[in-house]
Amino acid sequence: MAHQDKVVVRLDEAQREALRKIVRSCRHPAALLRRAYVLLKTDADGPEGWSDERVAEALSTSRMTVQRMRQQFAREGLDATLHRRRPTGRQYRKLDGQHEAKLVRSPARRRRKGAAAGR
Fold first, then answer.
1. pLDDT tens figures, 51-71
2. How far from 18 is each of 31, 70, 82, CA to CA, in Å?
3. pLDDT tens-digit profile of 68-107?
4. Is 61 exposed, middle or buried (0-12, 13-18, 19+ CB in 10 A)?
5. Which of 17, 63, 110, 114 has a CB 3.0–4.6 Å from the CB of 56, allowing a cystine?
6. CA torsion sign, 7 to 24 to 59 to 55?
7. What's the CA gap between 38 and 11, in Å, rounded?
């Protein structure tokens, strides 16, 4: 990604204070704290204004992770960046009850049980 295409994070004072409060409390999940630190450190109007590489090194993460957080902040805002979305897709079982029962009583499974018991 070229330098002129870089997404610039600009926090207002209320957002900056909310992030500082999260960081100071240390009572949040590590992922939320990391995201708050990234946004604070990359804030162009804030006192830090670090590069992606510097933030990644300081927080033991990758430059691409920092870049994705910047992009998400620009697209979706502070709340969406801080809090993960729950998956929307439903997880379907690979086997239904009938196929599962058939697998449990399969001959190969019985042979393995018998071989272990015969030793």
1. 899 999 999 999 999 999 999
2. 16, 17, 11
3. 999 999 999 999 999 877 767 777 777 788 888 887 877 7
4. middle
5. 63
6. positive
7. 12
Which of 72, 77, 79, 78 shows the shortest CA–CA distance to 7? 72
Per DSSP, the three-state class of 65 is helix
Q: Which residue has the tokens 């920092």?
A: 66
Torsion of CA 44, 48, 49, 52, to 10 degrees: -140
How much of the chain is helix, strand and coil, in % rounded to 5?
A: 65, 0, 35
How far apart are the C-alpha atoms of 66 and 35, rounded to whole Å? 8
Amino acid at 30: A
CA distances (Å), origin 112, targets 68, 101, 116? 49, 17, 6
Greatest alpha-carbon pair distance for the chain in Å reads 73
Amino acid type, 97 = G
